[in-house]
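user: can you give me the structure for this one chain? tokens are fine.
assistant: on it. calling the predictor now.
[tool input]
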Amino acid sequence: MPTPGKPTQDFIPIRDIRNGVIVLNNGDLRMMLMTSSLNFGLKSGDEQGAILMQFQNVLNSLEFPIQISIQSKRLDIQPYIKMLEEREKAQLIDAMKIQVHEYVSFIRDFTSRTNIMSKNFFIVIPYSGGSNVSKAGAESALSGLFGKKTAHKKMTADETRSFEEARVQLEQRASIVEQGLARCDLRTIRLGTEEITELFYKKFNPGELESSVM
């Protein structure tokens, strides 16, 4: 059970999020790529085989581990239904109004019986070069995740140099992964500090997000 009085930050391994790089409590770094997806089921047998072979070649060419993370969440269909209802009211032709009404009814019935899920795919790239970012100087980067503001202390010159050297190595690894995935027809986007912070905010504050859409 959680220890009373201990802040939430003490139970997660993240020390800082800086310049699009996650700094763990032990000083290791992580960079995150968001990737597109492929409709594998619609590919022919030859195409599927070629994709699998290419992806296998990408994994075998890496000299460092990666983590593949999939985020699944139920898609809120209410804004779409509301938009359709507004279009139904705006229709001047009775036949079109009936068609839109029937389509809305179909969507309502379908979503009541089936969970419509949205999925995001991420590649987490590690580097264990040893970043010396001090914990005191990193608290403010995560304060937004938990609604607590803390004073920000700048890194020292040695900490900045150590962090930048490690970040360069991490970016080189990210480039290798990006090039490999491009050969598999997968597009990638590097997540910046704001995107990573938002991702973890949604992870640690699910109740607040659910109440905001009700």
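assistant: here you go. The chain has two domains: 8-72+119-212, 76-115. Helices lie at 45-61, 78-90, 94-113, 139-146, 157-182, 193-204, 206-212.
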